[in-house]
Specification:
mainly alpha, single chain, transmembrane, about 0% strand
Length: about 400
């Protein structure tokens, strides 16, 4: 391990935290470009296996992928640094937005629309790259297409879980005999004992926090309980967390409906994970300290789950049956990403021929000219302003 690799983790994740617009699907594209293609910290298969693992876990999948990569690079501290770099820019903006809510107007700025178009290019590029490595034959293409069709017809987090389970079962029967014998192991500074301890802590907090919140009247404990529970139970991430959060904070009078929607709009306009909406809501409920507590509570389950799962992934990846399961799940992930590319990525971003033209240019910069994602973000915003000036 290089001497300054912890600084490398911080540098890479901070760059992603400042430029990763477009939601969890786009984040996976940014991650692949930075960690796999550019820095080569892990290969395509390892990256795909981490995504598959995180798809099985509740919580923000893209954040969990980033945490896992940080842990693989530099252990538990690497995971924390990776999370801080990716999450902190969004947290700071949303906390400041909450503090200045009365005088701040978001509006429908052109740069926000441009960032959505950038996401279209990034997600399309990610799907092509992942599809090439994860669906190289007709059976896996069929799984991906089936997953995409089901998700397009029945879009919900529950259906997504069923699709992943079905793909795992199909993979178990179809691909176990085709398992690779030379799977490259990875080194991890976290032991299985520490993993089991993390899962035990998760269970104790999940049971104990609601009891403590009912016994002790304290706004900070209430905030921690609400956001920890949601961070533990939500599958699908991104937009799926919206109704769960709304049900917890609006009917109870912690924030108004208008305040909630304003925070949601800002969470979509900034880079990084949408789960940082918790930072805004916590600040609205109980000031800056409330925002910090809500942020920690929202993401703590992800840390505990990744610590609990990663130590067992190394051994499981060597087993033919588990490889078969991952093969099926990885193929389904391509289909799920394809469905997400249409809704919400494409339909929320492309409203005219000019928008589509910009998306084609940005995709070409990524795919054919191999320009880095951060550069494409800048070009997208500039060209978006030019197009808006000329055609509007």
């Amino acid at each position: 391990m290089k001497k300054h690799s912890l600084l490398e983790v911080l540098s890479a994740s901070l760059k992603l935290g400042l430029t990763s617009f477009g939601g969890p699907t786009a984040h996976l594209g940014y991650f692949k470009d930075e960690y796999v293609d550019k820095r080569k910290w892990l290969d395509d298969k390892m990256y795909a296996d981490i995504i598959a693992l995180c798809q099985f876990l509740p919580g923000p999948a893209s954040s969990q992928v980033g945490i896992a990569i940080g842990m693989l690079r530099r252990g538990l501290l690497g995971g924390i640094v990776s999370w801080l770099g990716f999450t902190l820019p969004s947290v700071i903006v949303l906390v400041l937005f909450a503090l200045a809510f009365q005088s701040f107007t978001l509006g429908n700025a052109t740069w926000i629309a441009s960032l959505k178009i950038v996401a279209v290019a990034v997600v399309a590029h990610a799907i092509l790259g992942m599809g090439k490595s994860l669906t190289p034959d007709k059976p896996r293409i069929a799984i991906a297409l089936g997953a995409a069709l089901i998700m397009l017809l029945f879009p919900s987090a529950f259906v997504q879980i069923l699709v992943i389970i079905a793909a795992a079962i199909i993979g178990f029967y179809l691909f176990s005999k085709q398992a690779e014998t030379n799977v490259r192991p990875f080194s991890l500074a976290i032991t299985k004992t520490q993993g089991l301890a993390a899962l035990s802590i998760l269970g104790l907090l999940l049971i104990g926090l609601p009891i403590l919140a009912n016994v002790v009247t304290n706004s900070y404990i209430t905030i921690f309980d609400i956001f920890f529970r949601i961070g533990t139970i939500v599958f699908g991430g991104g937009h799926v967390v919206l109704p769960l959060l709304e049900q917890e904070v609006v009917p109870n009078g912690l924030v108004t409906s208008g305040e909630f929607l304003a925070g949601y709009a800002m969470a979509q306009a900034v880079p990084g994970p949408m789960f940082t909406l918790a930072s805004y809501l916590g600040t609205m409920i109980s000031g800056t300290v409330g925002g910090i507590i809500a942020t920690i509570a929202m993401f703590l389950p992800s840390f505990l789950l990744i610590i609990g799962a990663l130590p067992f992934l190394n051994a499981l990846r060597k087993r033919p049956r588990f490889q078969g399961v991952l093969t099926g799940v990885n193929a389904s992930v391509v289909g799920i990403l394809l469905a997400a590319f249409y809704d919400p990525v494409f339909i929320s971003a492309i409203a005219s021929g000019a928008d589509f033209a910009l998306a084609i240019v940005l995709f070409s910069l990524l795919h054919f000219w191999r320009r880095p994602a951060w550069m494409v973000v800048i070009v997208g915003v500039i060209l978006g302003e030019v197009i808006h000036f000329i055609f509007v």
